[in-house]
């Protein structure tokens, strides 16, 4: 509750509804860095941490940064609308976390024509290099590979595994699954018995796991594209009278506090970290672009793997 209030206060300091500000003019040169950020939504704890990182950084630097923040409620059409609104405002830089990979060419060409650079934050889009300035985020294929290595270790190379997948068409889902499946194929004793999207949310993760448990009497491992879906799946496993973390081993991606708590309770086994605290890097890159400096095409995050065995010691150090 306290967290939610702090978050709302920060948002109210720095956020403006883009839909209400369609005609705002570009700030005169050499004044504040004016940035528009088109966020996906609030589907997970990870997403909340990323939003807080961006809005908090802007609030701390309110003398030099003006942030226009839009929450698209997980709808691509709302993100496109937000980007168009930022173009109309004449912001210096646009930040975009594309909910899905495809369907961005038209609006990104409009940004290019308006000479407004676009930085992809956390997720990538399937577009040509000339349509974006940089991608700040993780190597999702590598995350999927790390997750599979952990699953193979936990199952000693054999067993039935189910996959709870993220939003269909999202780069974070597509690439994690690619990495996971490539790596898991190296253990012929492991069979993927079911795969279904839980849209990166806890509630859908729970629903998907409930249906897996009804259809498959022998599940040895569960992999999820994010921790929130796994937390929902753990609820389903417990309600079905099975032991999560022992009878059914779990591996998921993100590294949110809730998953560390589940590991401390012995109900989860591994989380592969994906860093959401991208605010400082994003605004630095935006300021560099405004100053005419060149920036790397991919600003990659450094990430770790966390296991149940060290979770109690790791938990107090977690920032999200
Ligand atoms: O794009 C990153 C993914 O999006 C995170 O893993 C997930 O929790 C979020 O919703």
Task: Write up what this structure looks like.
- With 320 residues, the chain is of the alpha/beta class.
- The chain folds into 2 domains: 2-137 and 277-299, Response regulator (Rossmann fold, 3-Layer(aba) Sandwich), CATH 3.40.50; 140-274, Response regulator (Rossmann fold).
- 41% of the residues lie in helices and 19% in strands.
- It is built from 11 helices and 12 strands.
- The chain has helices at 2-14, 45-60, 76-89, 105-113, 140-154, 171-184, 202-215, 227-239, 257-264, 279-290, 311-314, and strands at 33-39, 65-71, 93-96, 118-121, 134-137, 159-165, 190-197, 221-224, 249-254, 270-273, 298-300, 305-307.
- The strands form 2 sheets. It has a 6-stranded parallel beta sheet with strand order 2-1-3-4-5-11, with helices on both faces. Strands 7-6-8-9-10-12 form a 6-stranded mixed beta sheet, sandwiched between helices.
- Helix 1 (2-14) crosses helix 2, helix 3 runs parallel beside helix 4 and helix 5 (140-154) packs across helix 6 (171-184).
- It is elongated.
- Bound molecules: alpha-L-arabinofuranose.
- Alpha-L-arabinofuranose binds next to helix 2 and strand 9.
């Amino acid at each position: 509750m306290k967290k939610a209030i702090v978050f709302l206060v920060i948002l109210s300091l720095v956020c403006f509804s883009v839909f209400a500000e369609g005609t705002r003019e570009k700030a005169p040169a050499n004044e504040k860095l004016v940035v528009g950020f088109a966020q996906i939504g609030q589907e997970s704890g990870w997403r909340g941490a990323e939003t807080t990182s961006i809005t908090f950084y802007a609030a701390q630097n309110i003398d030099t940064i003006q942030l226009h923040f839009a929450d698209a409620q997980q709808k691509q059409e709302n993100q496109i609308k937000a980007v168009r609104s930022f173009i109309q405002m004449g912001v210096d830089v646009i930040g975009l976390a594309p909910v899905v990979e495809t369907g961005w060419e038209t609006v990104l060409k409009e940004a290019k024509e308006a000479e407004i650079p676009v930085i992809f934050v956390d997720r990538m889009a399937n577009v040509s290099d000339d349509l974006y300035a940089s991608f700040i985020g993780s190597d999702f294929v590598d995350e999927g590979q790390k997750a599979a290595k952990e699953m193979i270790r936990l199952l000693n190379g054999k067993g039935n595994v189910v996959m709870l997948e993220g939003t269909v068409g999202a780069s974070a889902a597509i690439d994690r699954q690619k990495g996971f499946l490539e790596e898991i194929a190296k253990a012929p004793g492991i069979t993927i018995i079911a795969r279904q999207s839980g849209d990166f949310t806890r509630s859908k993760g729970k629903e998907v796991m409930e249906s897996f448990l009804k259809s498959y009497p022998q599940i040895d491992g569960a992999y999820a594209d994010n921790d929130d879906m796994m937390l929902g799946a753990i609820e389903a496993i417990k309600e079905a009278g099975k032991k999560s973390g022992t009878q059914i081993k779990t591996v998921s991606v993100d590294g949110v506090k809730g998953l560390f708590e589940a590991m401390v309770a012995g109900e989860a086994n591994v989380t592969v970290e994906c860093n959401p605290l991208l605010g400082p890097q994003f605004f630095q890159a935006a300021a560099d672009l405004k100053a005419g400096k060149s920036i790397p095409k991919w600003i990659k995050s450094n990430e770790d793997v966390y296991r149940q065995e060290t979770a109690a010691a790791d938990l107090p150090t977690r920032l999200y």
